Amino acid sequence: MKLIAGILACDEQVLSAAKTRLESALGEIDLVSDIWPFDQTSYYADETGSRIVRQFVSFRQLIDPGELADIKHRTNALEQELAKSLALPVPRPANLDPGIIEPSKLVIATTKNYSHRIYIGKQMYAEVTLVYDKGAWRPMPYTYPDYRSPQYLDFFAKVRGRLLDQLRATAREQ
After folding, report:
1. In which residue ranges of the chain is pLDDT below 50?
2. Which domain holds residue 167?
3. Which of 10, 82, 84, 148 has the most CB atoms in a 10 Å sphere around its CB?
């Protein structure tokens, strides 16, 4: 399936550094969203600052969904590396959230358990954040408010389109 990463960062320079680290660790990035202000909640303000920006990336290489727990551990380590190397006055200058897009859903990985999350091993959980139904992304009752925004849904539709193209190409090769 198609690996994606959501990046929250304290500024655009950190966003750029995070994308570079993600690409080194997880492979070539093939799609990049616009940069949006992240102002739906102040939940991350103490860790990341008060003017957080958001961007999503997807990766060219398709992955096995069973890799998601390991990938979340890798992105957590990348966050720590970025915090040390950038030495900024915030403890967590970047928050990296990996997920996968399948033709029918978007799944994100998290370290936090909750009633709607499934344990995927290695102290990680996953939630179906969006489902693709009748030609559009649909949120779940627990979907974060920002994941409901039209610009996010448009980007996820582009990633899904790329995934479908890749799956068709793979099927033709076999």
Report:
1. none
2. 2-173
3. 10
